[in-house]
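#lab-general

N.A. 3:47 PM
ok so I finally got the sequence cleaned up, no stray characters, all 84 residues accounted for. can someone with queue access submit it? mine expired

B.Y. 3:52 PM
send it over

N.A. 3:53 PM
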Amino acid sequence: MVPSAGAHEQAVHSIQQTLARGNEYRYLAEAIEEGHISGDGRFTRLCHALLEQELGVRKVLLTTSCTHALEMAALLLRIQPGTR
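B.Y. 4:20 PM
back already:
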C-alpha cells in the first residue's frame, strides 16, 4: 500500500504479479483441455474479433512482443537498410 495525496490509500500492482479478476483460470483450463495454449487458437480469434469490433477496424494483428510488432511494421512498410 502506498499513501496517496489524500487520507486514502490505494493498492499498487506490480507488473510481475499475476492479476486474475474474472474468468482467467477457467479460460486457461479450457485452453489446456483443448490442447492449444499458444497463439493463433480459439482465444486469439475471439480477441481479434472483440478488438476489431470495439475499434471499428477491418483487421487486428496481435504479436507476442513489441519487438515483433516493430519488425512486422517494418516489413509492411517495406523498410530496408538505409531507409530514412
